[in-house]
Amino acid sequence: xxxxxxxxxxxxxxxxxxxxxxxxxxxxxxxxxxxxxxxxxxxxxxxxxxxxxxxxxxxxxxxxxxxxxxxxxxxxxxxxxxxxxxxxxxxxxxxxxxxxxxxxxxxxxxxxxxxxxxxxxxxxxxxxxxxxxxxxxxxxxxxxxxxxxxxxxxxxxxxxxxxxxxxxxxxxxxxxxxxxxxxxxxxxxxxxxxxxxxxxxxxxxxxxxxxxxxxxxxxxxxxxxxxxxxxxxxxxxxxxxxxxxxxxxxxxxxxxxxxxxxxxxxxxxxxxxxxxxxxxxxxxxxxxxxxxxxxxxxxxxxxxxxxxxxxxxxxxxxxxxxxxxxxxxxxxxxxxxxxxxxxxxxxxxxxxxxxxxxxxxxxxxxxxxxxxxxxxxxxxxxxxxxxxxxxxxxxxxxxxxxxxxxxxxxxxxxxxxxxxxxxxxxxxxxxxxxxxxxxxxxxxxxxxxxxxxxxxxxxxxxxxxxxxxxxxxxxxxxxxxxxxxxxx
Length: 488
Hints:
- By secondary structure, the chain is mainly α.
- Helix content is 75%, strand content 0%.
C-alpha cells in the first residue's frame, strides 16, 4: 500500500516541476516577438524596450545559482515555492504595468523564478528512484526546451486575439496554482548541505555577471568600442578574479570551485557555453528572417503568428527528442546524445547558410535545431547531475543554466553585429548579412560538437561511504547507479 502512494506522489511532484520550469522557459521567449507592440503601447523607445529582455536576463543570471545554493542548504521545496511565488508576482506586476519602468521592474522580479531549473533537478535527484532519474531529468529538460519554442509560437496568436498583457495573465494563473501545488505536494528535501550564505561572494558573483551581460546585451546600441562597453568588460574581469579568489579562500563558498573543476562539470559547461551561443541566436534571428518583407529581395513577409507557425517543426522536434532522450541515454550514454545534439545543430546552421529560400527549408532546418536542443538539454542536465554530490545538485545545475545563458547572450550579440553590419538603404539587413550570420552559427555549433567529444562518459561507483549520501528513508536497493556518483 505504501509504494503506490509514493508513485502517485512522484507523479504529482513531476507535474508541478514540469509546470514551473515550462512556464518560466516560455516567459523567456514569449516577449521577444512582440517588443514592437509593447514599445508602441507604452510609448517608449526601441532602446528602452529592449530592457524588458535585458532585465529578465540579468535577474535570472544572478538568482539562478544563488537560490540553487540556498535550496541545497535550507530545502529545495521551500525555495521552489519562493521562486514560483516570485514568478507569479512578476507576472501580475507585468500584466498591470502602466509604464515601461514598472514592466522592467516586473521582469526583474520574474527573473527570480530562474531558480526553478536547478531546484527541480535537485528535487528529482532527491525524490526519484535511481532508475528513473535520467528519464525524469530528460523529460524536464525537454519541457524547458519546448517552453522556449512554445513562447515564440504562441506569442502572435495571443497578442492578436487578447492583447500583449495576456502574455502575463495566463502564466500568472498557472504559476500561481503551481506554487500552491508545490507547497502542498512536493516533499521536503531529505538532503541538506550545511553552511551559510557567503554574502561577499554573492555580491561579487552578481557584480561580474551584470558587468559582463549588460555590455553584451547593449553593445549594438552603445557601440562595441564605446567606453561603456570596454569599461564594463574590464570591470567584469576584475570582479570575476575577485570572486574566484573569495570563493577559493571561503570556508563556506557559494559555489565550490573544486566542483566546477570536475571533468564532467567543466567540459559540460564548455559545451553549454558554445551551444547556448548557437541556440539562442537561432531563436532570436530565424523568426526575424522570415518576417523580412519580400520587397527586400529575400524573406517571406510573415506576420508574428506566421513566423511562430514556421517555428513549429522546431518545437515538435525538441519536445519529442527530449522525451526520448531518457531511454536513448540508457542505451547510448549521455555523452553520445550530447554530441549528436551538437552535430544536429551544425547541420541545421549549415543548411540555413546555403538554403533558406523556401518555407520547407526553414522548416527542415528548424526541425534539426529542435532535435539537437532536445537531445543536448537532456544530456547536459544528466551529465551535471551525475557528476556532483547530491548536496551540490542545485548550484551545479544552476551554474550550467547560467553559463548557457551567458553563451546565448554572447552568440546573439555577435550574430546581431554580423547581420546588421551593412544594412540596405531601407534600413533592413541584407541577405548577405543573414548568410554570414548563419555561417558564424555553423562555426559556433561545430566548436560545441568538438567540445562534446572531450566530455567524460561517466562512471558508476558504489554508494557506500560517500559524502552527501541519501538519508535513511531513501536507502533502498533501487537507489544505485548514476545517482551514486559523488564527483570526487
